[in-house]
Design brief:
Elements (H helix, E strand, L loop, with lengths): L1 E5 L4 H12 L3 E5 L1 E3 L5 E5 L2 E2 L2 E2 L6 E4 L11 H26 L3 E5 L26 H14 L6 E6 L2 E3 L5 H11 L15 E3 H13 L6 E4 L8 H12 L10 H10 L3 H8 L7 H7 L7 H16 L3
Parallel strand pairs: 1-2, 1-7, 7-8, 8-9, 9-12, 10-11
Antiparallel strand pairs: 3-4, 5-6
């Protein structure tokens, strides 16, 4: 089996590449075109000197995406998201059809369904869409473009929540770092619930979508199937890092005001709001059982962090 993957320098696709190669699958890395200054653009490098990089490829797994960029002018944001996440996806899919690719797996985001859920209410593959920011809107627009091509290409859409695991970055690594430094954190008594997915569970599901015909032309919402509060996450990280970070109570309204003042309302939602996914239908569809529990994933993530940054 020949599988082409985009975004192979990123957290998810790098792990996916390693796991597929371990199964003796031939992986072709698809990179973005570079300009004269060596900067990556929005389009993918699909041909070079008469060579078609998708020739003889069975499946394309599209992981690459544009995420939030710092110091970006507001008037350019929507345009850049469209170019990178919508237009380039459409071009990649059409070239896949031309090259004889059989299946196209698109890594979308649960943000297509919205930013938060009410306590103990869940998103699933049948939930209404409600993308609120440019990133989520571009992911949904890309999904729609792909489904227009499903007569000529088998399309699989996967909408995961926050992905964690060894080499994780962004906000999840910041939380681990804060716990590792035993910083006081204001999450005690927070009763939110959030879904996460361990990277090895996500990539095991992606592989199942590669080999299972029942995945064709479907949308899947997946998670570890074990939702926890931010408070519980801190407690588990304390345990696996062997730390004793102080978790104290602070009035949630005061915290909300503080995050509004520093213009970090989205961060507040991620830390204090709920976002739950019910993956049961998606898992039942493919007879899939996540190979790792949330605790196993957090333990492995903490072990990696300690080996890399534990003494810092």
């Amino acid at each position: 089996m020949n599988i082409a993957i985009t975004g192979t320098n990123g957290f998810i696709a790098k792990d996916l590449t390693e796991s597929l190669k371990a199964k003796n699958i031939n992986v072709i890395k698809i990179k973005r075109e570079k300009d004269q200054f060596g900067r990556s653009g929005s389009k993918f490098l699909l041909t070079s000197n008469g060579k078609d990089y998708l020739k003889n490829v069975d499946i394309v797994i599209h992981c690459a995406a544009r995420v939030h960029q710092l110091n970006e002018r507001k008037e350019e944001v929507k345009k850049h998201y469209k170019e990178s996440n919508v237009d380039s996806t459409k071009i990649l899919a059409k070239h896949s059809i031309k090259s004889g690719v059989k299946k196209f797996i698109f890594l979308s985001s649960i943000k297509v369904n919205g930013e938060e859920t009410k306590y103990n209410q869940f998103f699933n593959e049948n939930s209404r869409v409600n993308p609120l920011d440019n990133y989520a809107k571009s992911k949904y627009d890309a999904e729609k473009e792909l489904f227009l091509l499903k007569k000529d290409l088998k399309v699989v859409i996967i909408r995961p929540p926050l992905v964690y695991g060894p080499r994780v970055g962004a906000n999840f690594r910041k939380i681990i770092s804060a716990v590792n430094q035993e910083l006081p954190l204001p999450f005690k008594n927070i009763k939110n619930k959030r879904s996460f997915i361990y990277i090895k569970n996500l990539n095991a599901f992606i592989y199942e979508c590669c080999i299972n015909k029942k995945a064709d032309n479907k949308i899947f919402t997946i998670s570890d199937n074990h939702d926890i509060s931010t408070n519980e996450l801190i407690e588990k990280l304390n345990f696996y890092l062997n730390k004793n970070s102080l978790n104290f109570y602070l009035n949630e309204n005061l915290l909300k005001l503080f995050f509004r003042i520093i213009r970090k309302e989205e961060t507040f939602k991620k830390l204090f709001g709920s976002l739950q996914i019910d993956p049961s239908r998606s898992f039942e569809e493919l007879k899939f059982i996540p190979p790792f529990t949330l605790d196993q994933g957090l333990k492995e993530t903490a072990s990696w962090y300690k080996s890399q940054y534990g003494k810092k």
